[in-house]
Design a protein that fits this description.
CATH class of the largest domain: Mainly Beta
Number of strands: 22
Order of helices and strands: EEHEEEEHEEHEEHHEEEEEHEEEEEEE
Helix content: 10-25%
Structural class: mainly beta
Bound molecules: zinc ion
Oligomer: single chain
Shape: globular
Radius of gyration: 19 Å
Strand content: 35-45%
Number of domains: 2
CATH topology of the largest domain: Jelly Rolls
Largest sheet: 8 strands, antiparallel
CATH architecture of the largest domain: Sandwich
């Protein structure tokens, strides 16, 4: 029996107050404006539902495929597509924010999923940092620092460089800072609580903050969050496994076979070019390996990030 087609999607772009134009420069994306902050590369979320570009079901939305062709996803048991894959270009700082977990989101956000996410640093300027974690030791201290706008005392910043990887659990205060470009694998959720937005204005008004919800979901005290170095040596390396996903980095120099058992998997080529069982791809391309596909062999000189649901 012939293998199923690898599935390529048309991305959904989001302009943002903090966005830039690096996605066009780096990946040749046809971005809608010079403040494009996010590319939802593989998403079935109602706020950005990607369209399949190739194969028998070309033109169908990913959410439609999820509803109607469970076999394409290894019959993975979930009421919605579980993951969301994004490229984020932060020309300016993102708001300092936090995400709820599944149980809080289910009750307080109309049955939405919570958001666990992880970041692979595609690019950043020397000396870059990200916000990850906070210093408050008690809920009272946390609330007081927020109410007093003492954000420099509250937040922790960690140094990052290109190729670093960071897991962000729900309840963790975090922010991507200006000059940093990342690839994000996350739960399929669009729930963000803004704690602080640098007093910026959008169309003359500050963006909404979500102080009470933030105070409710921020975990105290916060475990220290650190960036791991992912390395360039040839081969496959697992970067993280959590309840929702596993993420791997594949440094392909010649040939590499990915044979992990998956319901389905998402592949992002972040550098170089190559082929996947003969199908060509280049940096900036993302595709889905359908359920039941079996081992896949990549050839070429390229760096891939591979995410699979758990
Ligand atoms: Zn986030």
């Amino acid at each position: 029996m012939a293998k199923k087609d690898l599935m390529f999607f048309t991305p959904e772009f989001k302009t943002m107050i903090w966005g830039g134009s690096k996605m066009r420069d780096r990946f040749g994306y046809d971005i809608p404006a010079d403040n494009t902050g996010e590319c939802w590369a593989i998403s079935a979320h109602p706020n950005g539902d990607c369209t399949l570009k190739n194969g028998e079901f070309a033109g169908k939305k990913l959410s439609w495929l999820w509803e109607n062709r469970k076999d394409l996803f290894g019959n993975y048991d979930s009421d919605r597509f579980p993951l969301l894959l994004k490229v984020i270009d932060a020309k300016d700082n993102l708001s300092i924010q936090v995400h709820p977990d599944d149980s809080y989101a289910k009750v307080n956000e109309n049955g939405s999923l919570g958001k666990t996410e992880c970041w692979y640093i595609l690019d950043c300027e020397p000396g870059s940092t990200l916000v990850a974690g906070h210093n408050a030791k008690t809920k009272e201290e946390l609330c007081k620092l927020i109410d007093d706008h003492e954000f420099t005392k509250l937040i922790r910043e960690i140094p990052v460089s290109k190729g670093d990887f960071i897991q962000i659990e729900p309840g963790t205060v975090h922010a991507i800072k200006g000059g940093v470009m990342i690839l994000e694998t996350q739960q399929n959720s669009d729930i963000t609580y803004r704690v602080y937005d640098y007093d910026r204005l959008q169309n003359g008004k500050p963006r909404e903050l979500h102080i009470e919800k933030s105070k409710a979901v921020i975990s105290v005290p916060q475990n220290s969050v650190s960036a791991i170095k992912t390395g360039d040596e040839p081969g496959l390396k697992k970067l993280v496994t959590c309840k929702y996903y596993s993420v791997y980095k594949a440094n392909v120099k010649g040939s590499l076979t990915f044979g992990e058992k998956v319901s389905f998997a998402l592949v992002s080529c972040i550098e170089g070019k190559g082929t996947a069982d003969g199908t060509e791809f280049k940096a900036g391309d993302h595709f889905l390996i359908p359920g039941g596909y079996g081992p896949i062999t990549f050839k070429g000189e390229c760096t891939l990030i591979i995410s699979k649901p758990e």
